[in-house]
Amino acid sequence: MTTAAYIKDYPRPQFVRENWLNLNGEWSFRFDDRNMGERERWHSKFEGTHTINVPFTYETQASGIGEEAFHPYVWYHKSVHIPKEAEGKRVILHFQAVDYVAKVWVNGDLVGRHQGGYAAFSFDVTPYLTLGADNRITVKAEDSNSCTQPRGKQRWTKDNFECFYVQTTGIWQTVWLEYVDARRLDSVKITPDIDRQVVRFDYEVNGVDEGGDLKLEAIVTLKGKPVKRVSLTMDRPCLTVEVDLVHEANGPWKRNFWSPQKPALYDVEFILYSDDAVVDRVFSYFGMRKISIENGKVLLNNVPIYQKLILDQGYWTESHLTPPSEEALIEDIDKILEMGYNGVRKHMKIEDARFLYWCDVKGLLVWSEMAATFEFHDRAVDAFTKEWLEIVKQQYNHPSIITWVPFNESWGISSILRDKRQQKFTEGIYHLTKSIDPYRPVITNDGWEHTVSDILTLHDYVETGEGFQKRYGKIDAVVGNETTCNQWKYAFAEGYRYQGQPIMITEFGGIAYQSDKGWGYGRQVDSDEEFLKRFEGLTRAIKSVDSICGYCYTQLTDVQQEINGLLTEDRKPKVPLEKIREINLA
Question: Which segments constitute the Glycoside hydrolase family 2 catalytic domain (predicted)?
Fold first, then answer.
C-alpha cells in the first residue's frame, strides 16, 4: 500500500528523483561554547572532538553523545565523494531540518545560511565542489534560549518544567544530496477540485533562460492505469495547467476521492524536455479531496465528518523529536488507527515529511501546528511569519493535512485577550495563510481567546463527564463569552464574537496512572477500570453535545515528565487498544 514511486527512507516523498545520496550516519562533531569556530576557521580545517550519528541531536542517546546540557554553537563535518560522472549536473545539498540557524560551508567556502528549526532548505553547491574527489561539508548550527524564536515544547531553562522538554539543537532530520540538470522542475503546487473534477498544477521551473525549447509533461495514473497526459511549453519560470480527470479509467468518480475510509491517491510523473531530450523526471502523487465548512460543520468531500483526533507530540525516548526510523512513524499511525481515531493533531512540531506521506497513504487526517514562540516582540513576529509561510508551502500538497494551526493557547501572544497588536498579528497570519492556501480551515489560537478563526476550538481538562455536561450542556454561554470555556479562559478575545463556526474540543483528558515520576491532568488513577470509566465518561459527554463536531484527546504517548499518554514513551499500551477503540466508535 504505497505510491508507485515510493522509496524507503526517501526524505521528500512527494517530490521524488531517483538520483540521490543519503548523508545520514557518522559525522565529526564539536561543541563551540565560546563561539570561536568561525574566527579560527573551523570551516577550513575541522578537528572534531566527538562522532555523532546524524540526524540525531547531541542531546539524544541515539546520537552517540547523549548530553542534555545546552550548547549554543555546535559544528558538524563530513567528507563526501562526488563522482566525475556528476560533471554537467547541478548538485543540491538538502537539509530537512536544522535547529535553529544553519551556516554551511563546502571545501571552506560559505554556500548559504538558513534560519528556522522546522522548515526544510537546500543549497546548490556545484560551484564549490571538486569532481572525482572527496569534498568537505561543514555545518555550524546556532541555537539559543530566546523565547522570540519558534521553539514549541523545547525548554529554555536548565531543567525540564511543566510540559517543556529537553531542547533540540542542530541537525535533527535527514541530510542528503541529489544530482539534477540546470533545467529542472523546482516545485509543483498541486490543488484538487472535486466539484469541477480537475486538478491544478502550478509549476516553477529553473533554467528557462538556459536555452533550448522546454516542454513539461504530466502523466497521471490511478492504480497503474493511465488517466491523463498533458503537456505545455515552458516559456517562463512559472506556469499553470489544469487537468480534467474525467476518464473511463477513473470508474465511478466518488470512489477515487481521498478519505480516511478510502485514501485513494493518484500517481503523477512530471517530465521536463529540452529540445525533446529528457532533462528532469520527478514523481509525485495527490489526493482528490475537499475540506469545507457549512452550517457549523466541517465537511470532507461535501459530507459532514466527525473528527476523532489524538494529540501527538512526536517524541521518542532515545531520539526525542527525531523519528528513530520510518518504521516507527508507521507504527504510531497504525496504533492511532487501531484505537479508532481518524486523525491526529501534531502538537507544537512540524513532523518529518515521511510521517505525512504515510498519513496520506493510510488515510489519517492531520492538523499541522506551528511551534510557538513564548514572547511577543518584533523579532518573534519576523521569525514566526517567515518560517510559518515556508512550512505551509512545503506541506501544501499533502491531502492528509486538513487544518492549519499557527497558534495555540495564547503562547507567544499572552495578552491577546485585549492587546490589539497581538490580535492583529494573528489576523495577519490567518490572512497570509489563506493567501497561500484558501482551501483549508485556519485556527488562529487553538484552545481559547480566538480572533478570526474558521473553527472554534476549546481546551478543557475537566475530570468527569458530568462536569463536562454541566459546563457545556448550555454551550451558548461559552461561545457567547458570557462564561469561560474552562475555569479561566474565554472562547474569544475582546472585540471578536462567535459567527457560527464549527465547535470542537481539541484538548481534554490527559489521564495519568498513579506515579511519582511525572504528571497528568487532574487526579491520577489506580487501575485500568478507573482509567476507562473516566475516559469513556468524558468521551461520551463530548459526543452528547450536538453542536460539538469533534474532539482531540490528550495524548498519544508519554513525553518525558508528562505521563498522560495512552501509550508509554516506548509505545507500550497502558490499556487494551481495543477498549479505546470501542469507546471512540460507540
Answer: 293-582
Q: Do 555 and 431 have their domain in common? A: yes
* Whether residue 257 sits in one domain with residue 111: no
331-346: b or e for each residue (b if 16 or more CB lie within 10 Å)? ebbebbbebbbbbbbb
The 10s digit of each residue's pLDDT in 96-127 is 999 999 999 999 999 999 999 999 999 999 99
Q: What is the pLDDT of residues 468-519, one digit of tens each?
A: 999 998 899 999 999 999 989 999 999 999 999 999 999 999 999 999 889 9
> 253 pLDDT exceeds 90?
no
Instruction: State the Rg of the chain over Cα.
Output: 24
Alpha-carbon distances, residue 75 vs 54, 137, 308, 367 (angstroms): 12, 11, 43, 34
At 282, which amino acid appears?
V
Annotate 354-391 with three-state secondary structure: HHHHHHHHHCCEEEEECCCCCCCCHHHHHHHHHHHHHH
- Give residue 352's pLDDT: 97
C-alpha 416/C-alpha 536 separation (Å) is 34
d(CA 494, CA 496): 6
| Domain range for 281 | 184-286
Asked whether 387 and 150 are in contact (CB, 8 A), the reply is: yes
End-to-end CA distance of the chain: 28
DSSP letter, residue 524: P
DSSP reduced 3-state for 415: coil
What pLDDT was estimated at residue 250?
57
Q: How many domains does the chain have?
A: 3
* CA separation for the pair 368, 312 (Å, rounded): 11
Last residue of a domain, one of 106, 138, 173: 173
Output the domain CATH number for residue 239.
2.60.40.10
* 32 belongs to a structural domain: yes
Question: Do 360 and 449 belong to one domain?
Answer: yes
pLDDT at 246: 81
Cβ atoms of 557 and 571 within 8 Å: the answer is yes
The CATH number that applies at residue 150 is 2.60.120.260
Whether 439 and 291 have beta carbons less than 8 Å apart is answered as yes
Residue with cell 513539461: 216
Query: What number is the average pLDDT over the span 253-271?
Result: 92
Q: If pLDDT is split at 50, 70 and 90, which confidence band does 394 have?
A: very high
Name the 3-class secondary structure at 560: coil
Strand 90-95 and strand 291-294: the pairing is unpaired
Nearest Cα to Cα of residue 118 among 362, 346, 336, 286: 346
What is the distance, to the nearest Å, from the Cα of residue 102 to the centroid of all Cα atoms in its chain? 20
pLDDT tens figures, 395-430: 999 999 999 999 999 999 999 999 999 999 999 999
